[in-house]
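Encode chain A's predicted structure.
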Amino acid sequence: MEPLIILLITIVPLLLGIFIFRQNSDHPNLPPGSFGWPIIGETIQFLFNKPENFVMHRMKNHSPDIFKTTILGEKTAVICGPNGHKFLFSNENKIFTAFRPHPMQSLFRSYKTPPPPQPTTATPEDDAKILRQPGFLKPEALMRFLAAMDAITQQNLKIHWEGKDEVKVNLVSKTITLELACRFFIGIDDSEWVAGVLARFDDVTLGLHSLVVNFPGTVFYRANKAATAIRKELVAMIRKKKAALVKGVSMQDILSHLIVVKDAAGKCMPEEEIADKIMGLIVAGYSTVATVMTFFMKYVGLNPGIYDKIRSEQLAVSSSKKPGEYLNWEDMSKMKYSWNVICETMRHVPPLQGTFREALTGFTYAGYTVPKGWKVYWTVGTTNMNPQYFSNPDKFNPSRYDEGELPIPYTYVPFGGGPRMCPGKEYARLAILTFVHNVVTKYRWDVLCPEEKVIGDMMPTPEKGLPIRLHSHDL
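Encoded structure for chain A:
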């Protein structure tokens, strides 16, 4: 037994060294860094050591501009800082294209690229096209939906918060945003159905950045099981909508659009592909918005002076409205300070840590060469809390966004940039401001666990759900 152990101790490092040498020798001018272990690379460190810590540590040890690694089974170049953001955003669809990591490809099965000679019917760019082409996120469409946003928010606050002393913010923020997403994307107005699928959508969200290990008890197993259940329900919903559309029923939601839209060959999209696309849109449209709402409540609850300024602004909006009148587009333009507070919330706790791209061709950046086919990762964490770009970055200071204190270009990019800037940016802004208006005009609150641990590195979540003590205002 002892000779075998000695042999393993000798051979394993040798094999690892040969692996690393061969990985680097093919392209001698690769960015500095390490591919990590065979197959898994540095995925464990990336997923379970907070992405911003992972990136900042390697920027310090390798290069502040770019470094190489292996994440989720892919050789990856991480591009850092505002110059990196500018380079990537300026070269979308030229040097870079969107890429979905393997967990996403597995959960949203129709996004997998079929082998030649079959045509690719679903690409990562399709989600943005779905939203942009029919005009669902244009101002006129969002204006029509704003009253529903207000009504849904008011209803949920009344059900879940009215008459209660202590509540957990994260649960109601997710409930509101999931109900909004389901109404907007699939046209469903059923609070009970939304409540029933919330846990499943949470499981899918957690599985988007996980090890693809499909065994009971793993994050991916739960996510895959939840995605299968959601897909089944969505397919049943699609069939009901198809039947209604045949009878001439008019429907103005994104799901109905996907059912009737045809490709260049005149073919409609398969039902499961429609279900996957809608599931992906809902996941993107509820979890990130809920994260911002939740941490807004934390930071404002800990800063009474900021709360007073927001409340003053929101009461001015309320005073101009008739009793029972919902918020409108003009009201949103009056919430400038409230939006500054939301921007500062997103700087401290980014709802989206970063995204992946794929190199369409080999390119050179910061003196290093990245081969064609490599994945590229960009992250807001390289600038948001950097004192080089934000003075006193640890301080929660909404006034830094006032005119004269605007961030340097490409240092603050919570919604990405370039052609692939988040198409739902305006939708998110309206949903969050609607929540802010209804909360601050009705309540003051105390954060019960100011030092509550934040879990879920890729999707930040307060460990205890952010419990608060409510104090109602007499209006």
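The chain has 16 helices and twelve strands.
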